[in-house]
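To illustrate this point, we now present one chain and its tokenised fold:
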Amino acid sequence: MMASVSRESYAAASERLEAHARRANPETIAGTAGDVLGVADLLRREPRLRRALSDPARPGEDRAGLLSTLLEGKVGKPALDMVGALVAGRWSAPSELLGATERLGVEALLASADRAGDLGEVEDELFRFGQIVTADPALGGTLSDVIAPVAQRAELVRALLSGKAKAVTVRLVEVALAGFGGRSFDGALARLVELSAERRDRQVAYVTVAAPLTDEEERRLGAKLAELYGREVSVKQLVQPEILGGMSVRVGSDLYDGTVLRRLTDTRNALAKR
């Protein structure tokens, strides 16, 4: 989580992104996202540069000027303006500048999908791919192997998703491979699903069931949760036959566990205490 001073710095860059997203087409926005993520990769590789660009002892204008000197002609003007706004702000730590740049690139990718009308589909594709990876330990182990180069793992992802997912989805999975926000691969994928939902002003509800809900059951559950949380809810089903029946629902840090397995476990624990 960003410190308050860092959030203020991020807000200025985010405003520039939203202004760019309102007037540009999806392809242009995606290109800007690629530029911003490229800067994030540079900051990740160059800790000395990261420190220089977040040094509170140097005026923000000087830091933005240094960035411009380094990147002029190498990235588009929209990306340079956005990252320049980040660099000109105040940061509580160099790592927060890196995280903010990476987050800005992700938000730009989501904005391009939103502009194209594909954001809901991208959200679902990210979730489904996460489920596929979870169900295949060998694949999960390969994609989560931080020793293997990201480029090598990204090549496997492109082979798996080529022609089956949106280009933005594939690029976001590549971001997850690099450990978005310092997370594990599966943690990064989950966070990207949540950010996709947030851009649509929705909350994500992870619903674990023994057998898939029907469309009508999912719709009714989503409506009840929306009433409870005061905003639309994106229901993501996790099918686990071992829970036997009932369901558990996780929304943020809230967990409602009404599974048969949980009730049996509670009963067994109660009997063991007698």
